[in-house]
């Protein structure tokens, strides 16, 4: 069994701003669009805990945040600065384990199986890493520990803010069971709505679902939903992230909410990624979509497709589905990216079309 940690920075953009503006630390601090006296159309990207206590949260319209607290500190998104802080954090995380996979600007999975003997030691290891990030960089984070990526993520969410939380494999089902389905990692708003309409309100109910009906409603993703609801998740870490993936991204000339335009772009990028994978002679196991919104907030969503593939359709269909499931409605998209990872040198023409649900 593996021991997987998820390191996730707390209120990252706002924490970075607090670091260079300690004078704002006790004040409500909102990073995002310029509120323009409450008339602006943008959203809150991140805010600190003082602002959260006032009811402000990320993705909230900036005009609403302004109404809640006119004299809050409103700062624009300074992506290059957050990226430089992110690479400092990631370097430090890497020094704790090279089995490391960055999944967004402020999150990384780390496999510490060969660094510790058991979960209790993993908790101590996580605390040491957390302290190191706090002392050397000055930023708070939370760390979740479990035996899969899914449960490490769930543990991390439960430990926020500023916490270390362990969920052992045998406790996964009990932990997940009472949660509403939308709290399960990987389930977006649309999927949650569909599940609820099918009568699945809690993760526990979903865990007892008929897999055939899940697969007929959601395709391969249905099988993944079932495994997730039962606390079973992938424990693979894609090491050397940059090297072992092939990705392309493109910025729109003007920010857009037009699904047709975005989907066309995803398909065209998928095509380029496919050509590159073919050129390098690799098949892939994971498809990732990166969505950067107009306020520079960025979402990465990945799907492990369950087998090595070398087909264009697997890239474009999964990428479009990930976009449809996870994109924030009505948020203008600035940039879109598609990536394949979990790469393997191609071995002949092995194709797995006979996928069966568990
Ligand atoms: Mg975070």
Descriptive report:
The protein is α+β, with helices and mostly antiparallel strands and 358 residues long. It folds into 3 domains: 1-176, Reverse transcriptase/Diguanylate cyclase domain (Alpha-Beta Plaits), CATH 3.30.70.270; 180-229, 5' to 3' exonuclease, C-terminal subdomain (DNA polymerase, domain 1), CATH 1.10.150.20; 245-345, DNA polymerase, Y-family, little finger domain (Dna Ligase, domain 1), CATH 3.30.1490. The chain is 40% helix and 23% strand. The strands form 3 sheets. Strands 5-6-1-7-8 form a 5-stranded mixed sheet. Strands 9, 10, 11, 12 and 13 form a 5-stranded antiparallel sheet that branches. α6 links the parallel β7 and β8. α12 runs antiparallel to α13 (312-326). The protein is globular. It starts with a strand and ends in a 13-residue tail after the last strand. Mean pLDDT is 89; it is low at 348-358. It binds magnesium ion. Magnesium ion binds next to β1.
Bound molecules: magnesium ion
Q: Gyration radius, to the nearest Å?
A: 20 Å
Give helix % range: 25-40%
CATH homologous superfamily assignment of the largest domain? Reverse transcriptase/Diguanylate cyclase domain
Give a count of the beta strands, DSSP E runs of length 2 or more: 13
Number of domains: 3
Major β-sheet profile: 5 strands, mixed
Low-confidence stretches: 348-358
